[in-house]
Amino acid sequence: DAGVIQSPRHEVTEMGQEVTLRCKPISGHDYLFWYRQTMMRGLELLIYFNNNVPIDDSGMPEDRFSAKMPNASFSTLKIQPSEPRDSAVYFCASSRGGGTVANGYTFGSGTRLTVV
Amino acid sequence: AQSVTQLGSHVSVSEGALVLLRCNYSSSVPPYLFWYVQYPNQGLQLLLKYTSAATLVKGINGFEAEFKKSETSFHLTKPSAHMSDAAEYFCAVRSGGGADGLTFGKGTHLIIQP
User: What is the per-residue pLDDT for B103?
Assistant: First the structure.
């Protein structure tokens, strides 16, 4: 199993540009999570999907952020327009089962986003 | 709502010494608890988890953690620290009964002194 695959690993973009982060979850996992990690805030849950359907997006900071999961093997997190304060490491994670099943998540290696 | 508090943003121990990383949680339902480790420029890797079975949980790399309901704690320990243990450690809680995401603590940076 290749694990959770995220791309790109690093992204540097100018303020105002659109940024798209990509994630391929582990095959057979029905939950997918997007997290953001910063020094100030630590790890924050942005949004998660169950069977490709967004369940909770209350962590998405503002309308500039959007996430999609068109199928079970692919998800995107888009920021438009990007701002310097969006600079962070964005992690995707997947798991099998819901809250009644205590599975840990498998994390991808993250995308380090720098907005200049 | 669930929450996690990790005491000490940095912990420094000598190689061969006991490692103790503290985690206290708050949860309105019986919790599931996790410890993750993050090495530089990498994602988070699951160390161990508590799922309401045995209160003493053994994980990878010689780490273990004990769930203490009366103290709402889930501290991580390792009898003898190794240089390769230097990393960031995160405690996380996930409430049962619903498909919630993990709530993470702020993390503890473990420094191993030679």
Answer: 85
